[in-house]
Amino acid sequence: MNQRFLFIFLLIFSFSSQAQKVDLVYFNDAHQIYPLDDVKGGRGGMARLKTIVDQIKETNPNTIVLHGGDLCGGVLFGGMYKGFPMIEAFNQIPVDLCNFGQHEFDFGAAHCIRLISKSNAKWFSSNLKNRDGDTFANLPTYIIQEVNDLKIAFLGLTDAMNTSAKDNHVLQEDLIVALTEVMTNDDLIKADFIVVLSQTNLENNRQILDQFPEIDLILTEEQFEHESNIFYKGSTPIVSTAGNMSSVAQVSLLKNENPKINIIPLDDKVASDSTLLALEQYYQMDIEQQLSRTLSILEVPLSFRNGIEKESLAGNLITDAFREYQQSDVAIINGSGIRTDIPAGDFTVKSARSLLPFGNKICQIALTVSELKEILISSVEDKSGNLLHVSGISYIYSAKNKKIIIKHENEELKDDEWLTLSLNSYLLNKLEGDFEIIIDESQAKADYEILSAYCEKRKTLHPKLENRVIITVE
After folding, report:
1. What is the pLDDT of residue 13?
2. I need a labelling partner for 366 at 20 to 30 A (CA). Which of 15, 193, 433, 448 fits?
3. Residue 178: helix, strand or coil by DSSP?
4. According to the model, what pLDDT value does residue 409 have?
């Protein structure tokens, strides 16, 4: 074989292989259109994502862009704009396929359907259902993409719907139950690759692969905010890109070969697409104009992570504001409802909205001490953010005997005493029981508005830890 013939053969072979290869570009956790500024040079941003997508498509036109879920709520930007700027950016990239995260439902199922109606992408879900048992919004349970001689099946799973707004128009089916039903479809049996987009934790992903070893690839939610990870169950990869769209995964698929994975950071080394950069800058200026007013001076920093498993300064400040506004006996907030760190210094409208980005309404109910104990006990051992922070009382919980004592000014309260309780609409909608509602959601004010007014009354803010929440193992 002479050199010229060899060169032509290799060129043809290379072209043929490239024509059959499919690249997946996967990203997740797209709550904010412009980069987060918590690291040098920022991380994430739609303009950088557009650049990466265009570069990969230039090399391989057979590219499918996938969003794993969460483009709404979750952070200040998501709370203010409720996902619509993200859909606008998705359409310009463009994104081809979308799975749901639980945050798409932070403002209700009807709002989620409005988002879908603005989107040019194909949406699907393998386990979210309507009340009648059909797929949510009557969407497909899977998507088949055929590119040249490759047939790729995509399935979508959404977990932790209990952490979003309660809405009976969307129901979460068990992940394994849903897959058991969907995986019997002939289209999936004949597919060259089965790819699952999953909004769930690593343990559940591993259980999925135990039950369904025919799955070739799982693209899942962030396991760490600043780290991307590729885990393996046997030879099957579980790909987790970093939080808040800090990275994307490029996955190359060739028939009869294992997926090849490249993690690409969306950092300041990536140039920003000019059109989407202009869109980012518009929203960045808009949000700053709305939120720049200083309310007070914060003398100590607030950490939202401290409130996941123990009393926190942020939890105390926020519940004090709720209780004072409604003149209630007690106020509570779930730790996961507090969403960011706030440094010491100027406490602005932006600070208040960043702490409470969901815009939950603060309601008021009447209940007995015994009923309040049940509410506190139901969440006190949770490690994912359901621990309740309190104002007006303190409580001591024994993890050993599962008993709780509630005190007011160091005096234990009796079970039959009645209290008024301020709580957000998210918690109220999850309560089981027939409580007397004094202020319902239709009459209530938004949480960040109450916090803003409370802080503006004070020249300085210096919340303290006061042993409001004590958990013992004895």
Report:
1. 44
2. 448
3. helix
4. 94
Rounded to an integer, what distance in angstroms lies between the CA atom of residue 420 and that of residue 326?
A: 9
Q: Which two tokens stand for residue 279?
A: 């869109």
Reduced to 3 states (helix: H, G, I; strand: E, B; else coil), residue 60 is coil
Between strands 63-67 and 22-27, the pairing is parallel
Structure tokens at 61: 């036109």
109 DSSP assignment: H
pLDDT of residue 143: 98
Q: What is the pLDDT of residues 104-143, one digit of tens each?
A: 999 999 999 999 999 999 999 999 999 999 999 999 999 9
Give the 3-state secondary structure of residue 411.
strand
What are the b/e assignments for 436-446, b being 16+ CB within 10 Å?
A: eeebeeeebeb
- Residues of the chain with pLDDT below 50 are 5-17
Beta-carbon neighbour count of residue 192 at 10 Å? 17
Cβ(118)–Cβ(98) under 8 Å? no
Vertex 101 angle, CA 99 and 106, to 5°? 135
Q: How many helices (H) and strands (E) does the chain have?
A: 14, 27
Measured CA distances, 348 to 221, 224, 270, 452 (Å): 31, 28, 32, 8
Q: Is 214 left (phi over 0), alpha (psi -120 to 50) or beta?
A: alpha
State the pLDDT at residue 156. Answer: 98
The rounded Cα 445 to chain-centroid distance in angstroms is 24
d(CA 449, CA 35) in angstroms, rounded, equals: 26
Cβ count within 10 A of residue 183: 18
Give the DSSP per-residue string, 328-372: -SEEEEEGGG----B-SEEEEHHHHHHHSTT--EEEEEEEEHHHH
CB atoms < 10 A from the CB of 88, how many?
Answer: 17
Beta strands in 190-289 (DSSP E): 193-199, 217-220, 229-233, 236-240, 247-253, 260-265
- Helix, strand, coil percentages (3-state) for the chain, rounded to 5, are 35, 30, 40
Name the 3-class secondary structure at 205. helix
How far is it, in rounded angstroms, from Cα 267 to Cα 248?
A: 11
* pLDDT score, position 73: 86
- Cβ contacts of residue 176 below 8 Å, gap of 6+? 207, 208, 211
CA–CA gap between residue 207 and residue 20 (Å, rounded): 32
Using DSSP bridges, classify how beta strands 150-158 and 260-265 pair: parallel, antiparallel or unpaired: unpaired
Which 8-state DSSP code applies to residue 160? -
pLDDT at residue 4, rounded to an integer: 53
Neighbours of 346 (CB within 10 A): 14
The single residue listed with the structure tokens 């709550």 is 31
Q: Are 361 and 449 in contact (CB under 8 A)?
A: no
* Predicted pLDDT at 374: 95
